[in-house]
Amino acid sequence: MSKIGKMPIDIPAGVTVTCVGDLVTVVGSSGTLTRVVRPEVGLKINQNEIEVYLKDGETENAYWGLERALIANMVTGVSNGFFRKLELSGVGFRSKIEGNTLVLTVGYSHPVKMEIPQGLKVEVSDDVKIKVSGCDKQQVGQFSALIRKVRKPEPYKGKGIKYQGEIIRRKAGKAGKAGASGKT
């Protein structure tokens, strides 16, 4: 039995969940999300909760807990939303938004322009803090990872784009290595 799969999903006020065949639609204040549920899994929608169960009397299936978690993320996304915060650290590193494009100046000979996907909202504050928000958790995480990939933080000086609160393990470099060996 899946510990995650058998837990019911609470539906908060203002969120509507409908299931037609294998298509689940979740509507809330932040937006609308749809998903096709795997054929091994079924849904039972009660007044204020959703139960995810296995069809055909199976007791073990890896998709049971996965589908329950994905539907729970959909419900959370349309009611509260998801966000990721990123920070730029480095001399001259900055970001700005031009229309529907995020422009990053991160030490290359040219600014890097990234088209903001539909359904996401990107905010820039202090030129070095970026907040990506939206109702789809996968889409928010994917776009945040693409932003970070433009200039990953390096371990010697810590320059680059990192998630807020991320700890970058620092290395000593050549000068630290020579001094530690005990040579005179």
CATH topology descriptor of the largest domain: Outer Surface Protein A, domain 3
Shape: elongated
**Strand element count:** 13
Q: What would you call the structural class? A: alpha+beta
CATH class of the largest domain: Alpha Beta
Q: Oligomeric status of the shown chains?
A: single chain
How would you sum up the major sheet?
4 strands, antiparallel
Share in β-strands: 35-45%
State the strand order across the main sheet. Answer: 11-12-7-13
Number of helices: 3
List the helices and strands and how they pair.
Elements: E1 9-10, E2 16-20, E3 23-27, E4 32-36, E5 41-45, E6 49-54, H1 62-79, E7 82-89, E8 94-98, E9 101-105, E10 112-115, E11 120-125, E12 129-134, H2 137-150, E13 160-163, H3 173-180
Antiparallel strand pairs: 1-6, 2-3, 3-4, 5-6, 7-12, 7-13, 8-9, 9-10, 11-12
Please give a handful of descriptors for the protein shown.
Outer Surface Protein A, domain 3, 184 residues, four-stranded antiparallel beta sheet, alpha+beta, 13 strands, 22% helix
